[in-house]
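Limitations
The structure tokens in this dataset are predictions for the assembled complex, not deposited experimental models. Users should treat interface geometry with appropriate caution, especially where small molecules or nucleic acid strands are included. An illustrative entry is reproduced here so readers can see what is and is not provided.
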Amino acid sequence: MSLNSKIPQGPIKDKWTNYKNSINLVNPANKRSLDIIVVGTGLAGGSAAATLAELGYNVKAFCYQDSPRRAHSIAAQGGINAAKNYQGDGDSIYRLFYDTVKGGDYRSREANVYRLAEVSANIIDQCVAQGVPFARDYGGLLDNRSFGGVLVSRTFYAKGQTGQQLLLGAYSAMNRQIARGKIEMHNRHEMLDVVKIDGKARGIIARNLVTGEIERHSAHAVVIASGGYGNVYFLSTNAMGSNATAAWKVHKKGAYFANPCYTQIHPTCIPRSGDYQSKLTLMSESLRNDGRIWVPKNIEDVKAIREGKLKPVDIPEENRDYYLERRYPAFGNLVPRDVASRAAKERCDAGYGVNATGEAVFLDFKSAIERYGNEQAKIHNIKNPSKAKITELGAAVIKEKYGNLFQMYEKIVDQDPYKTPMMIYPATHYTMGGLWVDYNLMTTVPGLYCIGEANFSDHGANRLGASALMQGLADGYFVLPYTIGDYLSNDIRTGKIPTDTPEFDEAEKEVKERINFFINNNGSHSVDHFHKRLGKVMWDKVGMARNAKGLTEAMAEIKAIREEFWKDVKVPGTANEMNPELEKAGRVADFLELGELFAKDALMRNESCGGHFREESVELEGEQKGEAKRNDKDFAFVAAWEYKGEPADAVLHKEELKFENIELKQRSYK
Amino acid sequence: MNLTLKIWRQKDAKSKGKMVSYQVNDISEHMSFLEMMDVLNEQLINEGQEPIAFDHDCREGICGMCSMYINGEAHGPDRGVTTCQLHMRSFKDGDTITIEPFRAKAFPVIKDLVVDRSAFERIQQAGGFISVNTSGNTQDANAIPISKHAADEAMDSATCIGCGACVASCKNASAMLFVGAKVSQYALLPQGQIEATDRVKNMVAQMDLEGFGNCTNTGACEVECPKGISLENIARMNRELMKANL
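Predicted assembly:
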């Protein structure tokens, strides 16, 4: 099957408008007889479910948590981008589009990104109308801050809890529809397979996580909004339950999986501390607005710090290496995430890591506290303020901006970041890859849609900060509700989809067999044992820097772990009860397949772009020496993989990327 | 450190539960409380016993999923944190730690430490929203100026994570801090005024229907709230309710 991205004709700025004017619509009476399943209730799934229900469709929504409000979008801290240009600093739809394509290292689809930028401003209007308490200035208008990889302030925020507030907004819109009976909400349910009838997605098999019951649900279309696959690394900033099962199951039923190797390793996370560690915690990128990243210049100072003989605050300015400011004077501490992460790795690999594991750098707020303190002293008309007074005033400003993040850090690390610099290190955070979708956000299976982080479409090889929330809500509130109508207009005479059909029988049988296998396997190792081993291979060989040898080894090692898993995994308890270990077993089984495809994709892509860094592909000379080297001639395509039984046998389909509005250039943040 | 854990075990909603003692050794003070629970569960699985079911997800204190009652306090002895943010440095070698589910009539136990908080969902569905369609055809966001003070205060109320610690801490199992926070968020914003009357009446009515107790101003909820939601929210809700009934 050849890939058809279905990008509308015409100039880029008119594509979405023309598209909306020409698609088929479903009249309100007919919407009442159409059912849509939405899997996942984060920003994408939650906003889609609410909007589709408002339009009149019958929505069935599913989440594995005990409430839609707990989806992991809730943990997004920093903000949401929108081309409002409220600051009058030169922002525009074009500029947001340009920044996103450039930030994604020219590996995203122009038309999708332009549409995203186009609807971004509306998201803010919508959220304010819903009562989302965004930060405001003293004049009562909305405040903005700046994020990595851009030169304007276009990020709207609600303290360090923007994701929480936006998700609660979508959740409130869902609640309104649940109360009206337009959304049938299934909490504590997990989708375990998709059901196809005559080639179209017509339903899902789900497990009730409280009773263990296997349920059949039918619909005229299925929307996957189940988030990313970062937990393939075991340790990531994802929630413990975040998983790829829904996406992987539909991949195995015919949906192509695109660019799995594009993974974002976020530069500012709290470093790992021991083997027992279950997850990593992100410190918002917004901290890089005010924090300066450094390591000591002298290796002796590094050693002294590690041994506890020297405190970081005692190292004088001239002995500090603010390496991002040194290497990238134009963007400094606000370079994009992939660049910042690799720079931290470079310093730590060279031996300058500042904690016991050698994997940490400092994020320091001393300069910002001083700067704000002086500013406040002037505002409050304090003449000749003491140093202590300046620090006090400055710390108060920092607290106002990042208080909850500082508190979070202190609780985890047991150090006061107002007094001593934070220690940070990169960690897996977001996956740009995902199910391949066309302009309509439909996968290669008719009637099967994919939105939010679960799809591949908007961020190319690297996502800019504060763009995930934007994409999730854009897909759910403003894009899918149009595109899905065009498809469903052909289904107005179909009638209810029955669930007592051979297709449902077959899918349910497969799901039950797998569950029974796990319960009866009686192996000798827990699910986590295998997950940790997979994570170690992924981090060591498919992490921040990759090479052909490591990737080849990784593929073989993951396959070996997978085979051992199926022989030797131990799942306690029974199938017909709440059984968290059984849930994990199914998810890890899928990660063990996805991980191998991930490595295969990384091996195929013999270029460095965005979050994917191949050691074989770097600039060898000139100003950009040592920086990632893209290869547009051979790799300006989306790699969409077709499932063929074993991950290693997946077949590659290429969607060539055409850049008609943006000239391909080397990304320079120098 | 070595610890004795006394944990509530209950097979399902219908079975009777009981406290069971477990021993865990070599626990690092840098572990989070839930990582300690992971270690115990790994140990139980290896011994062929059933691991302990507990709710958890984000493990960074924001999803509101984790819900243990530790040594008689919701989310344990530390202040301003959820169970997943509680670290073992809050305990010492040789301690005996008692771990129970959140207890309230409106939060029935599902299994072990997992409780059913769907009552909160139904309260939100009764009115925890502004009735605006998500068409995007609203006015420009800056067309509604909101004073920084009001926006910040609304944000403070909106930070509630819906974990239910307030209910578990209250001797009356009252949900008024939770409901008050949602009512307050909208009461403080101009967008929320239009439906203010119906909202507070409907949410309070649903809260009563769910079997939550009344507030007698002991303030335990505020002390135990991991997000520092203040009692003022309850006072504001009462004012809103009185206004609505006038």
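Some entries come with short summary sentences. For this one: The two ends of chain A are 43 Å apart (CA to CA).
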